[in-house]
Amino acid sequence: MRALVLALALLAPLPAAAQQNRPQPAALPNAQGARTLTLAEAERRLMERNLAVVAAQRGVDAARAQRLIASSRPPPTVSVGNTFAEFRELRSGPQPPRGRFLDSNVTVGLSVLIELGGKRELRTRLAEENIGVAEAQVLDALRLQLLQLRQSFIAALGARANFEVALANRASLDRTEALLRRQVQDGALPEGDLLRFQASRLPFEAEVTSAAIAYAAAVAQVAALLALDAANTAPPPRASALPAVALDLRGRLDTAAEPGVPREALVEAVQSRADVVAALRQAQAAGVNTNLAEAGRWRDVTLNGGWDRSRLSQDQPESSRALIANNQFTFSLSVPIFTDRIVRGGIGVAQGQQAQAEAQAQAALLQARADVAAAWTGYEQSRALLRLYTGAALTRAEQAYRSTEQAFLAGGRNLLDVLDALRTLNATRVAANNARAAYLASLATLEAASGVSGISPRL
Predict the structure, then answer these.
(1) Residue 50 in contact with residue 145, Cβ under 8 Å?
(2) Under a CB-based contact definition with an 8 Å cutoff, are residues 433 and 253 in contact?
(3) pTM given for the model
(4) Cβ pair 36, 250 in contact under 8 A
(5) Distance between CA 223 and CA 245 in Å, rounded?
(6) Pairing state between β 98-101 and 301-311
(7) What is the per-residue pLDDT across 324-335, written as a single tens digit (0 to 9) for each?
(8) Are 443 and 455 in contact (CB under 8 A)?
(9) Residues of the chain with pLDDT > 70: what percent?
(10) At a CB cut-off of 8 Å and minimum separation 6, what does 101 contact?
């Protein structure tokens, strides 16, 4: 009777053509109220909505605006004044000092700075180099954000697959428990067998909870990368096992993908990786900045011109021709002096910054090559692990479960042995899902490390 109970519980859910005496994971239904999203759609949305990429793009706008400032000549200065009163101090005597308010007195001045040494051209070049740096930083931000999106998306698909395995196990256990409960009520089985079965299924329930949490967390991370509100979700129906998620991610973990590029080509390609290019352009900008500092040896000249008009005082001696106003035109030239220490200090600072930027560029290149080496090793190891789990390991776990079940049906094993074999099969399936996810994530990491597009799998 116990053998019949287990056989009915485990064989009934399967089609006649696929009865292999084990629960099969079933695809989850669409999450209610959630938007279905594929990886390709998510990548397109990330390029438009990701906040880190948007912030980097605003940096390009700022660098271009800075170029307008750098390419402009020093603006001339115009000054306008007025002499509105005068106060005369007289020698000591009976008359007190005299003062009065004046009108029709004006002073106009113009000051123009003449830059020498090609400073404006060097400033313009520096601004253009900074634009190139900002543009490379946009590409680097996109590279890193795409990597995070792909890793989170693949992790979500892996968690979803594990969730499906856990739900299939729970459904099978529910059917078995229902049959056992009926057999206890009919007196065909002792109640102790039912209690042992109920106690043994608790780890399976914990796996359902863990898988649901992992799936919801991965979906929330994808939503954050796409500038979506992960908390804006509708609660699922009471009968639904799905957690409340903002997105319903779709894709295949069993996608067969290979890099298609040899390791040596990937190592050489890192010279075009966005962060390496940005570091190189920063070094070039630092070189232009050194030239600009050296141009400070040329002293700039300031030209000053002015015009003063004032009404003559009314107590001037009489003359045959009355004077109405006095006009004065002035011109001066000013040159800064004692600037040698300041200029040498500025050159020293610029040279130090240039050497620093060059060292950082070299470090970025070496780090990129190290990233490719580590990513390639991760790819090879994850590929070997995937072959192990999707081949011999998973097959052995399924065979062990079938043999244990057959031994139970023949009376040589008890129900707890079958549950233990099911637990091992479940762990192997979960490990296989994780191996698939790790392999796909290693390809995404390899693309981000090398900067070569097309390596990350299309899910």
Answers:
(1) yes
(2) yes
(3) 0.80
(4) yes
(5) 9
(6) unpaired
(7) 778 899 999 999
(8) yes
(9) 83
(10) 84, 85
Residues 232 and 27 sit within 8 Å (Cβ to Cβ): no
pLDDT at 17: 32
pLDDT at 32: 57
- One-letter identity of residue 373: A
CA distance 165 to 27: 9
Q: Which residue has the higher pLDDT, 60 or 174?
A: 60
pLDDT band per the 50, 70, 90 thresholds, residue 209: confident
Q: Are 444 and 459 in contact (CB under 8 A)?
A: no
CA-based nearest residue to 4, from 236, 237, 12? 12
Please state, in angstroms and rounded to a whole number, the distance separating the CA atoms of residues 410 and 408: 5
Burial label for 88, CB within 10 Å (0-12, 13-18, 19+), is: exposed
> Cβ distance 449 to 372 under 8 Å?
yes
pLDDT tens string 47-69: 999 999 999 999 999 999 999 99
In whole angstroms, what is the distance from residue 9 CA to residue 23 CA? 10
Cα separation of 46 and 57, whole Å? 13
Contact 84, 104 (CB under 8 A): no
3-state secondary structure the chain: CHHHHHHHHHHCCCCHHHCCCCCCCCCCCCCCCCEEECHHHHHHHHHHHCHHHHHHHHHHHHHHHHHHHHCCCCCCEEEEECCCEEEECCCCCCCCCEEEECCCCEEEEEEEEECCCCHHHHHHHHHHHHHHHHHHHHHHHHHHHHHHHHHHHHHHHHHHHHHHHHHHHHHHHHHHHHHHHHHHHCCCCCHHHHHHHHHHCHHHHHHHHHHHHHHHHHHHHHHHHCCCCCCCCCCCCCCCCCCCCCEEECCCCCCCCCCCCCHHHHHHHHHHCHHHHHHHHHHHHHHHHHHHHHHHHCCCEEEEEEEEEEECCCCCCCCCCCCCEEEEEEEEEECCCCCHHHHHHHHHHHHHHHHHHHHHHHHHHHHHHHHHHHHHHHHHHHHHHHHHHHHHHHHHHHHHHHHHHHHHHCCCCCHHHHHHHHHHHHHHHHHHHHHHHHHHHHHHHHHHHHCCCCCCCCC
Rg of the chain's alpha carbons, rounded to an integer?
40
Half-sphere exposure of 68 (CA within 13 A, CB side): 5
- CB–CB of 39/253 below 8 Å? no
Distance (Å, whole) CA 230 – CA 150: 17
Give residue 82's pLDDT band: very low, low, confident or very high (50, 70, 90).
Answer: confident
Selected residue with higher pLDDT from 7 and 144:
144
Tell the residue number behind the tokens 């004077």, with chain if given.
323
Q: How big is the chain, counted in residues? A: 459
